[in-house]
């Protein structure tokens, strides 16, 4: 759990209204605010790690501006208000992406690439000898950017953000220069709307030069070129961005009103004609062998390249195939990032901290003597669980040939891309004589409740995770759940960040989600008396809370924080049940062991035993049920949006059986779901259609029994048009 940070205590002057400040007090306060705001800016822009909410930040800026307005002669060259492009308050404007910006699935081993190509062949029903062309492109380690051109003119540049909404950095992007990002697209027949996507990066040489300059000026040192590119671009003062050398490679697109080409490689060439740089190493490959050979070749050239890359991206070249392949959750089926092997380093383990998560899991985190690995300074390493420390794997097999990990040990750690660093080995000959085996706590370090390892039915062994049994009485679990509840993908409550949640929890005002919605009624007055909570920030906070009293069903289900229910599963449940009431009733039946309800849940896409069991466990707990009831009284849960209502099969349940000849089973299911139908695994009286190919067996009999409409593959295709 993150350390609790109280809002900073303030001296009297810091609370004095600006109108009442003497000149001397104002001078001190102005200087103090300038330092504080600069610190927040640095954490936000350069480290991507803000320590205050936007509302708190705005309040500081407003106070700063008010002092300056009253005593204009306090203004110096360092004044924040003189920074070009700096809005009086707030940060970058938010931009909603017309087409979501997605990420990529990763491949590490060659087998992952073999599997990737195999999946594509199966999905598209291609025979072994049918060639597939792939565009293989170096994976640039920078930050992705979406550039929107309307009638050929650059109108918006946005960062990826959470994929749905990014930050408007148009002014910053324009400082990169026409050679990197053209302000107007070149060529004839430019579509009315063209969104070009790609990577903003800084060369390794420029990164080193920049760090030297930063060091001389006593300024932040960037850990790697990626951070320096991101930090340089996301500057409110565009003159700072302008002084930083940044480049751009185009490799993808978002909304395009009229597609100019029908292949990935064609699009890349087209980007060049529009005035963009594309990566010169990009190559078309036709087989797994060619992809892997290309990966090896790029891996060898990597160190000599002037920019950082962390792998090679393979994309199916034909766009009609890309379209058929579609997406799984947030990643395309038609592309994968083949990462380069992890980088390693040797250091000392100086301690082990135990963190308690939302589900009560006790996770050991190794504290390291800081060490550089692949350009990043690493000082924490995940130690997974008790068995991992002992040298025992998930199936009871020895890890590191059974060597345990002790405080004081010299360890080899590795980093693979964005993955959290891991310990790969322990050097026994360097083990200090005094080092003793690590004793994993059997009590929760946060609430003191017993921490136990449940029996895992599947493996017949104790579960590898030790969990706190404190439930909601454990502050760590309650707070972690509240953090998930208010997070972007759940209730998305602005101004209710980690720090505020911990603070409200400590005060006893917010112990469970429902309390967030009664906070204003019950604690407004007290809150206003708290240091750091002014009228404006309190008003903003309550407005943010109020704006979330209506919520989509999938977000609501996700926000409950049921184990194993992530966003995708929540979406599937929401689509499957349609309304909160229907889900709630079904889940209660599942918790009571009702077989029909279990079978119905099981039939939903992405749902299996793990989710069903977790849902049952969650609802068996009376405290959870009561908390949900209290919450449901505070909010209105909107029925799930049906993905498509204009198709003939929207809302219908379909089951596929037997051999399909025109498409694979996966493709058929994905198409049905795209058109708003539910693709189920088994036939019940709720099934609308059974699509039966040759060799259909028991499902066909079952369908006849329930009077379900049975279609041939051709009849099905005719139905969906
Ligand atoms: S394609 C839907 N191509 O990698 C696919 N991404 O891990 C969109 N990246 O967010 C991405 N080089 O920032 C693509 N040649 C390339 C890339 C690339 C770097 C980054 C990009 C993306 C991330 C995904």
Protein described:
With 721 residues, this protein is an alpha+beta fold. Among the domains are: 94-329, DNA ligase/mRNA capping enzyme (D-amino Acid Aminotransferase, Chain A, domain 1), CATH 3.30.470.30; 552-638, 5' to 3' exonuclease, C-terminal subdomain (DNA polymerase, domain 1), CATH 1.10.150.20; 653-720, 3-Layer(aba) Sandwich (Rossmann fold). 37% of the residues lie in helices and 20% in strands. It has 25 helices and 28 strands. The strands form nine sheets. A five-stranded mixed sheet has the order 2-13-10-3-9. Strand 14 and strand 15 (362-373) form a beta hairpin. Helix 17 crosses helix 18, helix 19 (580-591) packs across helix 20 (595-602) and helix 19 (580-591) packs across helix 21 (609-620). Residues 1-10 and 83-90 have low confidence and may be disordered. Residues 102-104, 137, 139-140, 144, 160, 199, 251-252, 313, 332, 335, 337 line the site of 2-(butylsulfanyl)adenosine. Residues 102-104, 137, 139-140, 144, 160, 199, 251-252, 313, 332, 335, 337 line the site of 2-(butylsulfanyl)adenosine (IVH).
Question: What layout of secondary structure does this protein have?
Answer:
Elements: H1 12-15, H2 23-46, H3 54-70, E1 94-96, E2 106-107, H4 110-124, E3 134-140, E4 143-150, E5 153-159, E6 165-167, H5 170-173, E7 193-201, H6 204-216, H7 225-233, H8 238-242, E8 247-256, H9 264-274, E9 283-285, H10 288-301, E10 309-316, H11 319-325, E11 327-328, E12 331-332, E13 335-339, E14 343-356, E15 362-373, E16 376-382, H12 386-390, E17 410-415, E18 422-426, E19 451-452, E20 455-456, E21 461-462, E22 467-468, H13 475-486, H14 498-507, H15 513-529, H16 535-546, E23 550-552, H17 553-559, H18 567-577, H19 580-591, H20 595-602, H21 609-620, H22 622-634, E24 636-638, E25 653-657, H23 665-674, E26 678-680, E27 689-692, H24 698-706, E28 709-711, H25 713-720
Parallel strand pairs: 2-13, 23-24, 25-26, 25-27, 27-28
Antiparallel strand pairs: 1-6, 3-9, 3-10, 4-5, 4-7, 7-8, 10-13, 11-12, 14-15, 14-17, 15-16, 17-18, 19-22, 20-21
Helix pairs in contact: 2-3, 3-16, 13-14, 15-16, 15-22, 17-18, 18-19, 19-20, 19-21
The chain binds 2-(butylsulfanyl)adenosine.
């Amino acid at each position: 759990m993150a350390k609790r940070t109280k809002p900073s205590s303030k001296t009297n002057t810091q609370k004095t209204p600006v109108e009442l400040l003497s000149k001397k007090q104002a001078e001190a306060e102005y200087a103090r605010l300038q330092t504080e705001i600069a610190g927040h800016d640095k954490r936000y822009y350069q480290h991507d790690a803000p320590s205050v909410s936007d509302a708190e930040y705005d309040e500081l800026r407003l106070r700063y501006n008010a002092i300056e307005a009253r005593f204009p002669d306090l203004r110096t060259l360092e004044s924040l208000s003189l920074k070009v492009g700096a809005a009086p308050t707030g940060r970058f404007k938010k931009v909603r992406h017309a087409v979501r910006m997605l990420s990529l699935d990763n491949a590490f081993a060659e087998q992952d690439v073999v599997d990737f190509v195999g999946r594509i062949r199966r999905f598209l029903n291609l025979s072994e000898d049918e060639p597939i062309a792939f565009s293989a492109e170096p994976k640039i380690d920078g930050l992705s950017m979406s550039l929107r051109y309307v009638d050929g003119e650059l109108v918006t540049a946005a960062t990826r953000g959470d994929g749905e909404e990014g930050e408007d950095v148009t002014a910053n992007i324009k400082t990169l220069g026409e050679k990197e990002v053209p302000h107007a697209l070149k060529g004839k027949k430019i579509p009315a709307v063209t969104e070009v996507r790609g990577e903003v990066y800084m060369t390794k040489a420029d990164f080193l030069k920049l760090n030297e300059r930063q060091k001389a000026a006593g300024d932040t040192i960037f850990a790697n070129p990626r951070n320096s590119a991101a930090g340089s671009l996301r500057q409110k003062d565009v003159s700072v961005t302008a002084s930083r050398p940044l480049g751009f490679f185009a490799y993808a697109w978002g909304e395009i009103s009229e597609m100019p080409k029908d292949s990935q490689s064609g699009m890349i060439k087209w980007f060049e004609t529009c005035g963009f740089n594309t990566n010169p190493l990009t190559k078309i490959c036709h087989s797994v062998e060619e992809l892997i050979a290309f990966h090896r070749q790029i891996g060898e050239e990597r160190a000599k390249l002037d920019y950082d890359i962390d792998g090679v991206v393979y994309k199916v070249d034909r766009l009609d195939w890309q379209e058929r392949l579609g997406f799984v959750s947030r990643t395309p089926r038609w592309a994968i990032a083949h990462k380069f092997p992890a980088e390693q380093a040797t250091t000392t383990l100086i301690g082990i901290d135990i963190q308690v998560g939302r589900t009560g899991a006790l996770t050991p985190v190794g504290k390291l003597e800081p060490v550089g690995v692949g350009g990043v300074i690493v000082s924490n390493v995940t130690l997974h669980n008790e068995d991992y420390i002992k040298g025992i794997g998930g199936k009871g097999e020895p890890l590191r040939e059974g060597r345990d990990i002790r405080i004081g040990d010299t360890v080899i750690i590795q980093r693979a891309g964005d993955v959290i660093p891991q310990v790969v080995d322990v050097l026994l000959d360097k083990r200090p004589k005094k080092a003793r085996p690590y004793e994993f706590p059997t009590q929760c370090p946060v609430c003191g409740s017993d921490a136990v390892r449940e029996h895992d039915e599947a493996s017949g062994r104790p579960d590898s995770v030790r969990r706190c049994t404190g439930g909601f009485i454990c502050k760590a679990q309650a707070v972690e759940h509240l953090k998930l509840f208010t997070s972007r993908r759940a209730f998305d409550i602005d101004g209710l960040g980690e720090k505020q949640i911990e603070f409200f929890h400590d005060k006893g005002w917010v112990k469970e989600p429902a309390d967030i919605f009664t906070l204003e009624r019950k604690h407004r007055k007290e809150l206003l008396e708290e240091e750091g909570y002014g009228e404006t920030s309190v008003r903003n906070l309550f407005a943010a809370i109020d704006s979330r009293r209506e919520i989509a069903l999938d977000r609501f289900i996700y926000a409950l924080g049921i184990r194993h229910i992530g966003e995708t599963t929540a979406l599937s449940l929401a689509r499957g049940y349609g309304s909160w009431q229907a889900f709630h009733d079904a889940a209660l039946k599942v918790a009571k062991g009702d077989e029909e309800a279990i079978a119905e849940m099981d039939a939903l896409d992405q749902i299996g035993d793990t989710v069903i069991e977790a849902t049952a466990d969650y609802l068996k707990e009376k405290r959870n049920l009561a908390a949900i009831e209290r919450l449901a009284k505070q909010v209105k849960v909107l029925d799930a949006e049906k993905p498509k209502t204009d198709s003939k099969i929207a809302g219908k349940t379909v089951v596929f059986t037997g051999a399909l000849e025109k498409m694979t089973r996966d493709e058929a299911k994905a198409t049905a779901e795209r058109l708003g139908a539910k693709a189920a695994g088994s036939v019940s009286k709720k099934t609308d259609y059974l699509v039966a190919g040759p060799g259909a067996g028991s499902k066909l009999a079952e369908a006849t029994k329930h009077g379900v409409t049975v279609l041939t593959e051709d009849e099905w295709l005719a139905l969906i048009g």
